[in-house]
């Protein structure tokens, strides 16, 4: 897949990825700033800022003005906040690309941050936080990272906490933008059926954005020496757990080996954990494995919703599979299936211009280097059975085991005894 990278005089980077035969176009603006940039007294501000971008600008004073405009062209628009970056996008028919530049640049540079609107949106965000608290299947992943990274910027929840959200004022948004948003750490990505010159549009709408040096986040250093547990008592009908270990960062040379390993363990309905935990023992409805990779650290996790009376059995089976994959070489047929699964999912994702924009933007933004889909698939193909086994031996260590649980339990010692490899 071909792409072009252009850097403007102010340091802003533009990525264009043509997709022949696609009638839509996605414009995505990503900024290398997220919740791990926040001090405790503004925890949740990155996410709050994402909400406020859609609440009105000098040119389009209300949220309705923005929504009506995009709805009027049949477009999709949204934003997202992670711990290390934030994104804003609009996807629409290709002929509307100039309008997409107009609207997104306006939101980025000229949001009003009306105090009355801020106060109203506080209620929305607090209800979003409350919603997550009532959804163990969603909340458990937050608790897992709370456990891994503790009371640090990386360990806090992206949405923040209600008391902090209530205290945020207009000047906090302005200060945050001045500290963390600038052309140097922002990328404009245009993918799909591109008509006209994206370079000219970028210069027109964002070329005058003043260059500056945004602040950088503090690094996290792993130093775990014994297994750790976080138990959240909740009267649920199903127990939700996250169990895993510390993994690799975003640029680690073995990241693709870990990706194949993760797929083998919990990447689909024929994965080892799905078969052993759900199909053979009926211990869970859902079970899956994933990697979360940041620029400095990473983690591997298996998440499951299990029978509250048989959670001990589920944990034992999961840990047994962690140990097994590091001892016995993966058979050729199973390894091939895992690789084809990873590549197939990537190919399906690439049918959507929004996914294409996200793939290229995050590579450039967080790694400083774009890997095309073809390069990614080649790296997956290179992984051998022995490398999978070695990777498992490297990461699955008893001292770095971590378990987070939400369910009707109070006995921590019960779970601590299970953390054995």
UniProtKB/TrEMBL annotation:
GO molecular function per UniProt: metal ion binding; metalloendopeptidase activity
Domain Peptidase M16 N-terminal: 20-159
Chain segments annotated as transmembrane: 12-33
GO biological process, one term: proteolysis
Keywords: Membrane, Transmembrane, Transmembrane helix
InterPro entries: Metalloenz_LuxS/M16, MPP/UQCRC_Complex, Pept_M16_N, Pept_M16_Zn_BS, Peptidase_M16_C
Keyword Mitochondrion in annotation: no
Domain Peptidase M16 C-terminal: 167-342
A Pfam family annotated for this UniProt entry: Peptidase_M16
Family according to the record: Belongs to the peptidase M16 family.
UniProt cross-references to PANTHER family, sorted A to Z: METALLOPROTEASE, MITOCHONDRIAL-PROCESSING PEPTIDASE SUBUNIT ALPHA
Designated name of the protein: Peptidase M16
Organism of derivation: Candidatus Gottesmanbacteria bacterium RIFCSPLOWO2_01_FULL_42_22
């Amino acid at each position: 897949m071909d792409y072009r990278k252009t850097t403007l005089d102010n340091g802003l980077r533009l990525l264009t990825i043509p997709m022949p035969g696609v009638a839509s176009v996605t414009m995505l603006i990503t900024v290398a700033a997220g919740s791990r940039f926040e001090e405790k007294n503004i925890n949740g501000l990155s996410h709050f800022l994402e909400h406020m971008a859609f609440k009105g600008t000098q040119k389009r004073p209300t949220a309705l003005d923005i929504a009506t405009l995009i709805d009027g062209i049949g477009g999709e628009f949204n934003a997202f906040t992670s711990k290390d970056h934030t994104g804003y996008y609009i996807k629409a028919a290709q002929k509307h690309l100039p309008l997409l530049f107009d609207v997104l640049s306006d939101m980025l540079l000229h949001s009003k941050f009306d105090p009355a609107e801020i106060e109203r949106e506080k209620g929305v965000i607090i209800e979003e936080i409350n919603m997550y608290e009532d959804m163990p299947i969603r909340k458990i992943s937050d608790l897992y990272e709370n456990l891994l990274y503790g009371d640090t910027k990386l360990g806090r929840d992206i949405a923040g906490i209600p008391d902090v959200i209530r205290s945020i004022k207009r000047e906090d948004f302005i200060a945050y933008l001045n500290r963390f948003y600038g052309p140097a750490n922002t990328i404009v990505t245009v993918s799909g059926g591109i008509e006209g010159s994206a370079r000219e549009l970028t210069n027109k709408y964002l070329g005058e954005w003043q260059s500056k040096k945004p602040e950088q986040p503090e690094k996290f250093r792993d130093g775990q020496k014994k297994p750790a547990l976080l138990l959240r008592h909740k009267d649920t009908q199903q127990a939700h757990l996250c169990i895993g270990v510390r993994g690799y960062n975003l640029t680690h040379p073995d990241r693709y080996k870990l990706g194949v390993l993760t797929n083998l363990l919990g990447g689909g309905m024929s994965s080892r954990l799905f078969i052993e935990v759900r199909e053979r023992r009926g211990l869970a409805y859902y079970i899956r494995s994933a990697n979360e990779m940041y620029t400095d650290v990473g983690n591997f996790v298996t998440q499951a919703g299990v029978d509250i009376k048989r959670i001990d059995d589920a944990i034992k089976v999961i840990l047994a599979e962690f140990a097994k994959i590091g001892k016995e070489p993966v058979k050729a047929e199973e390894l091939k299936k895992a690789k084809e699964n990873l590549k197939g999912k990537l190919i399906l994702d690439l049918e959507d211009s929004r996914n294409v924009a996200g793939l290229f933007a995050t590579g450039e933004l967080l790694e400083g280097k774009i890997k095309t889909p073809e390069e990614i698939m080649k790296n997956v193909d290179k992984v051998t059975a022995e490398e999978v086994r070695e990777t498992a031996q490297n990461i699955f260590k008893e001292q770095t085991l971590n378990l987070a649980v939400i369910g009707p339990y109070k006995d921590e010692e019960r779970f601590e005894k299970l953390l054995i490899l």
